[in-house]
Structure formats: structure tokens, C-alpha cells
Bifunctional NAD(P)H-hydrate repair enzyme
Amino acid sequence: MTTPIRSEPLYRAADLRRIEAAAAAQPLMQRAGEAAADLATSLSRFEGGAVLILAGPGNNGGDAFVAARHLRQRGFAVSVVFLGEISRLPEDAAAAYRDFDDDGGSALEAIPSGPRWSLIVDGLFGIGLQRPVSGPFAAMVTAANALALRHHCPLLALDCPSGLDADTGRRCGETIRASHTITFIAGKPGLFTGDGPEYCGSITHAALDLHAERLAPPSARTIGSDLFAAWLRPRAKNTHKGSFGNAGVLGGASSMVGAVFLAGRAALKLGSGRVYLGLIDARAPALDPLQPELMLRRPEALLATALSALACGPGMGGSDEACELLLRACALELPLLLDADALNMLAREARLQEAVRARAHRGAVTLLTPHPTEAARLLAGDTAQVQADRAGAALELASRYRALAVLKGCGTIVAAPDGRWFVNTTGHPALATAGTGDVLSGMIVALLAQGWPGLEALLAAVHLHGAAAEERVASGCGPVGLTAGEIIDSARLCLNHCPPVSQPLDCAWPLARRARLLRSAWLVRVARRFACTPPCSSWPRCSFLPRSTRPPNTSAPISPYRCSSGRATWCTW
Ligand SMILES: NC(=O)C1=CN([C@@H]2O[C@H](COP(=O)(O)OP(=O)(O)OC[C@H]3O[C@@H](n4cnc5c(N)ncnc54)[C@H](O)[C@@H]3O)[C@@H](O)[C@H]2O)[C@@H](O)CC1
Ligand SMILES: [K+]
């Protein structure tokens, strides 16, 4: 079992414009179009087959014209449909059109009927989408989606699927449902969260010979195990259960005791030395017969226990008693995770909000893990608003409550009060079932109890939770009917197989970075010795990387996988 190793930079459109300006002298559109043509060639089902290319009124359309010219030269029967006025194309796109025209190509005004398409390419809109796709563009998008389905052919989106907001992952009107997306220069957050994963298909990155991070700091990052690898330490021989912390879970009002059991079992199996459960229901059992290692207590007794970290909320209900217990929990100086009913109480009780903010003043870590509806309550908005800008909502939560915030859902966002944010790329719709949030809470509190810092605990738990669901689905326990409890053993497996920093590393560039992390002079020397010269300008993943060490979700073709010496350096994840 392996999980995506490397965290990758993500850029919102405004930050990408800075990169584009810094690299304005370079023929980026030519490189983008050529990289797209390379991928299109490998995707097309027939050599020399009929390729439909939709070109829009901006530079995304320019990329499409460059790709069209290359595909024509490679013998494909290319039909380009262009809606708009050639005279109003931006400069680079107009030049791309002229090259295409000089080469014998011509642009059509409507999709020709007749050919059996072997590939459709969407070059209507990229990061310049300004409003919902409507009118003739919407008709074109609808037709392209329908043709791809009818002809069973791949639909390749250039930079991002037209209609998808690349910053937020929100659909804006009719949206291309791509089977593949080739994204240029760097990843965009909207490809990985909200509607993005559903509409992008398999994502390929074409760096266009740029190293984005050297030109502008990223807006965000995807979550890779490198972000928390420093905490994946082998267990020392001379340790005992006291070395791995005491995790507590508080909740379990009448008829909701199971939520605490799920969280407790997850905390135990993610490595907490001892796990204590505080059950509010006075008639709750005194033992979890399936997990007798768990220690069950009355809530007051739990709060008086010497805990290393505490999760509050699973099945907690919203009674006055629960609220008082939560206030007492906020007064504790340990890392405190609030989930589920604890978040609903936080949204409605000003006393709790004050108590949570006061924790930040004292330097006590608080973590919030809402799903979109809980986030909407905490922000006094509605779920649609939260989903329209998931990263914005997570950042607002983090800043308003001065806490680390996780916004769950497709492409979970992790945000810190200092403005850093991360997008998770693991996970599966099979997770949309009761209790998976309780399992996540248990995983987080387990890592906190073992001494992990709050941010790293969140990143690791979110990432492993998604990877565990993928593993369960791959082994046939889903997508239909996956249960929350089944994720726990897989999450344990994923954690135990996560490479700690001391394991062999797979690429010279991150090797240098990880070696610095270890602060080991010897490793730094080794890293320098094996580093690319010049360093790989791709994502940084070089051609000498053995195929077997590539990420497991590398489903898109990887044949044009070249190092910076090649024309188009790109990689797939
Ligand atoms: N500028 C650069 O250096 C590079 C740009 N590249 C490509 O250029 C794209 C960005 O180009 P642009 O900034 O020109 O933006 P787009 O090509 O994404 O679209 C902008 C154009 O579409 C129109 N438009 C926006 N939303 C519309 C809607 N809903 N209905 C109708 N018209 C709409 C705008 O008025 C404008 O004419 C990238 O996504 C990428 O594909 C690549 O070639 C790489 C290099
Ligand atoms: K596009």
C-alpha cells in the first residue's frame, strides 16, 4: 500500500498570472499546445483518427490552435470549431491561429456531423473564465459532452475543463466533463476540490519548462506524505504504552454511542498508547466488546483523566449537559479537536466561541473538522456558499475561530489561521456514509496524543483516511456498502506503510529537500551527488525515477515523461 508521496504546489489564477508575466519572453503557448498534442496523440483511439477541437475566444483557444496544428501535421483528421471573431483574439492566440491557417487548417463555426470522433479537445476556456458558460458556448459544451459519451471517446480539457472555476472547483454554467485534463505550468486548486475531481478526469501536469515555485510562491499545496514524513518515526525499542499518549473521546449521548466507539477504535489502531472514552448516555455499556482495549468512563471522569489530546463531538447531542462538558473541555490545556455536535454547539453558543478563541491566546491548539453544512452553521451562511469557495470557507473558519480547520468533502481542505492551506487528493465517494467522520476524528486525536503537531496530525489523518477508503474500494469493500469501521484497519495499514523520512527516496530533488529536513550532513552530501544537473524543472519528478516508484494513482499515459532536457516536461498524478 502506497500513498501519494509528494505535496505539489497549487496556484490560483491571480498567482499564475505572476508566473506568466515573469516568463512572458518564453513561448509558453507553443509549449502548451505541443504538450497537449503529445497527450492527445497517446489518447486518440485511432492513429490518424478524427479529432474535434473546440477553440475559445482567449488564450485557451490559442493552445487549442497550436495543438490542432501539431495534430494535423501528425496525420490526424482535425476539425477545429471556433466561436467568435478571429480579429478579437489576444495576440498570442491570434498568432497561433495564423500558424494553423498558414499550415492549411481552417476553423469551422459548428461541429460537423459525420465523423466518428476518436478524441475531443476542449480549448474553450481556461483560467480566464469570467462568468457562467451560457448561450452558444453552453450549447457547444453540451454537444461535446454528449458526443464523447456517444462515440465512447476521450475528452481532453486544456488547462481545466471549460465551465469549471479553476480557483474554487465550482461549476459555472455548462461544464465540460473531461476524461482527461492537461494542466499547464502548475496545478490549480479547483481541479482537486468541489466539482473539480468529477469534471477533470485524470489530470496531467505540463510544466512548460518552468519551475513555478522559483517564480512565485504557491497559493496552496496538495497533501503528500512528505508534509508529515518527519513525524513518521520508527518506534524506539525501549518504549511502553505511556510513550504514545492518552487519547480521549467525549460524546455518545443516548442512541449515539456508536460514534464514540468508532472514534475510539480508530484512535487505538492509529497508535495511541491508551484510549479513554467518555460516554454521556448514563445507560451506555461499560465495555466495547469488540474492542475491549478501550477504557470507558463517565464524562466527568474522562475530563479528570491525564489525557494527551481530546476529541469532542461524536454523537454528543446538544443538551445543556453536553454544552457544559464542552466548556470544561475547552478549559483544558491539551490539543482539542471539535467535531460533529461539538461544532453545532460552537456555532450557537457565544460562550463556547469565546472559550475556543481564548485557547488560541493561551497557545492551546484547537482543531475543527466540519463537513460543509456544519461549516455553514459556524460561518452563519449556507452550504451552497461554503461549497462555492471551499478554500475561502476553510480559511475564514481558521481565522474566525483561531483554530486549524478541516473542511471535509470531495477534495478536503486543511487551513491554518496563518493563511496556509492544503488540498487533499486521496479519498473516494465511498466515504459518503455514516461514521466516517467519527473515524477521522479518532485518527486525528491518535496522532495528537502521540505528540504530533496539530497541522501535521490533520494533514496525515486526512490523507490516510482518504487513502484507506481507496484501498478498501480497490479490495472490493466498496464503493457500495463500505462501512466506516472497515476503514480503520486500512488506515492503520496505510500509516504503517507510509515512508518515513529515513526510507529510500525516489527522486533527487525531493531527496535534497528531505535530507535538509533530517539535518544530516551525510544525507545532504548524498542528495547533492544524485541531484539532477540542472535540477529537474518538471514537477519535480525526473525521468530516472523507476516506474515502480511512481504514485499509485498514475492512471493517465506517461509516455512523454521527460526530464527538463526534453521540450515538454510533464508528469502525471
Ligand atoms: N498567458 C500565458 O502565458 C499562457 C496561457 N495559457 C492558456 O491561456 C489560458 C488563459 O487565457 P485567457 O486569460 O485568455 O483566458 P481564457 O482563454 O480562459 O478565456 C478568456 C476569454 O474568454 C472570455 N470569456 C470568459 N468567460 C466567458 C464566458 N462564460 N462566456 C463567454 N466568454 C467568456 C473572455 O472575455 C476572454 O475573451 C490558460 O488557461 C491557458 O490555457 C497557456 O498557453 C500557457 C501560457
Ligand atoms: K479548457
